[in-house]
Amino acid sequence: MRQEPVELPTTAYALLGLLTFGDDLTGYELKQRADNTLRFYWTSPAMSQVYSELTRLTGHGLVAARDDQSAPVRRSRRYRITPAGRQSLESWLRTESNEFPSLKHPVALRLLLGHLVDPARMRALLEKYLVALAVRRLELAAVRTSLGEDSDPAYDGYRYPRMVADWGLDYYESERAMVAALIDRLDG
Amino acid sequence: MRQEPVELPTTAYALLGLLTFGDDLTGYELKQRADNTLRFYWTSPAMSQVYSELTRLTGHGLVAARDDQSAPVRRSRRYRITPAGRQSLESWLRTESNEFPSLKHPVALRLLLGHLVDPARMRALLEKYLVALAVRRLELAAVRTSLGEDSDPAYDGYRYPRMVADWGLDYYESERAMVAALIDRLDG
DNA sequence: GGCCTCTATTCCTGTTAGGAACAGTACACT
DNA sequence: AGTGTACTGTTCCTAACAGGAATAGAGGCC
User: Fold this and answer.
1) pLDDT at position B1
2) A30 alpha-carbon distance from chain centroid
3) Within the 164-183 window of chain A, which residues sit less than 8 Å (CB to CB) from chain B?
4) pLDDT at position B7, please?
5) Helices A27-36 and A47-59: crossing angle, nearest 10°?
6) Which bases of strand D have any atom within 7 Å of the beta carbon of a protein residue?
7) A66-99 confidence digits (pLDDT tens)
8) CA–CA distance from B134 to each of B13, B65, B161, B177 (Å)?
9) Spatial distance from the CA of B29 to the C1' of C29 (Å)
């Protein structure tokens, strides 16, 4: 009775991955972790999807649920990754992939259609985006801070999350610079 | 009988926008145009979605179809944006939006889980991404070339598409630099 | 006690992605 | 003249994904 590799969508592996940091989470907590980490590189799945993925992963034996005893009245399940789940995730990580990042950039889309509106409005749109970008950058900076530093052995498990967070921060900075240049170009 | 503003998904407006460059397209051609332009900033909609959006837009009177006479035997429809469609699109462009770009970055996701695999494999993943990035950049560069230059009055209608394409090229370049730095960091 | 926020889960609807299926056209090769 | 293959064009089906409403207990505040 051989274990079939079971193809899953990327989001399933992403959630599985969030369960490899040493703790068991409820669906609600898993969604929070996704909002804190995943959100910056992979759209954080909807609540409904977190729960349906957990159900599916449970069905495949990749995560296991236990009823939370600390809240006996309340129906609440806490999920942990199983050895089979870890194996499946590692095998997914080892497989070659040609996946390329996919972007939905509403600001770029609107700019593409700039010939249909007043230039002043286009400028305002970009200015507003700059503000949103700064906010987002601050949010990620807070996450980055919580991940510690390479020099601190206590945070050794977060080496890769740190790299990704730094990548994200650089991205936001370069995006800021590019948008600022676009505003100048609109004016000129 | 007042025209209701009819809320549509962003993809519908994106497709509508691709019909504002002065020509009528079949669903197939519209998909091609999306692959040439939209793809770099907004995931190019699936064939099936292009057709279903065209059906819906027709229902709302925002585009109009005519049977292609040049191919009488073949069932083939050619779509053009209607005045109502143009108005709806312009009104959408004028409305404030808080939409933020959403990214699905499989490479960042895999890097986040780097603690589960061999560092050499992680490095290989990033190298491979660098190559894919270079290919994509070349594709966009070809599109950019076809959009002409600001100094040439013949290409005046493409001013905004040019800005977006240049933005994209800068993005690919900065992404390349960031990934190269990540590879160094992995090695160090 | 009333109110509000947070935790926790489920359900429903609409949007989006992806590919298979189908069919006609154009052109090159043999 | 036939054959194959690539391209144009459209439709259908399924699964993935997003978003929000509904439900409900828990804890704190005033």
Assistant:
1) 40
2) 11
3) 164, 167-168, 170-171, 174-175, 178, 181-182
4) 78
5) 120
6) 8-21, 25-26
7) 876 654 455 789 999 999 999 999 999 998 778 8
8) 30, 39, 21, 11
9) 29
Longest dimension (CA), chain A: 69
Inter-residue contact B105 to A168 (CB < 8 Å): no
Of all residues in chain B, the percent with pLDDT exceeding 70 is: 93
Minimum-distance residue to C20 (CA–C1'):
B48
In the numeric block, the tokens 């460059």 are attached to B21
Whether residues A113 and B160 touch (CB distance < 8 A) is answered with yes
In the structure encoding, which two tokens stand for residue A177, read together?
């610079």
Helix (H) or strand (E) holding A77: strand A77-81
> By the CB < 8 Å criterion, does B110 face chain A?
yes
Cα separation values, A109 from A73, A114, B15, B167, Å: 50, 9, 11, 12
pLDDT tens by residue, B59-101:
999 999 987 655 445 578 999 999 999 999 999 999 877 889 9
Token pair listed for B17: 């926008």
Between B187 and A12, name the one with better pLDDT.
Answer: A12
Among residues B178, B127, B104, B131, which one has the least CA distance to residue A167?
A: B178
pLDDT of residue B36: 87
Alpha carbon separation from A123 to A110, A111, A127, A129, B43 (Å, rounded): 11, 9, 6, 10, 24
Q: B112, A41: Cβ pair inside 8 Å?
A: yes
DSSP characters over chain B = -PPP-----HHHHHHHHHTTSS--B-HHHHHHHHHHTGGGTBPPPPHHHHHHHHHHHHHTTSEEEEE-TTSSSS--EEEEE-HHHHHHHHHHHHS------EEE-HHHHHHHTGGGS-HHHHHHHHHHHHHHHHHHHHHHHHHHHHT--TT-GGGGGGHHHHHHHHHHHHHHHHHHHHHHHHHHHHH-
* Largest Cα span, chain B: 69
The backbone region for B102, taken as left when phi is positive above 0, alpha when psi lies in -120 to 50, beta otherwise, is beta
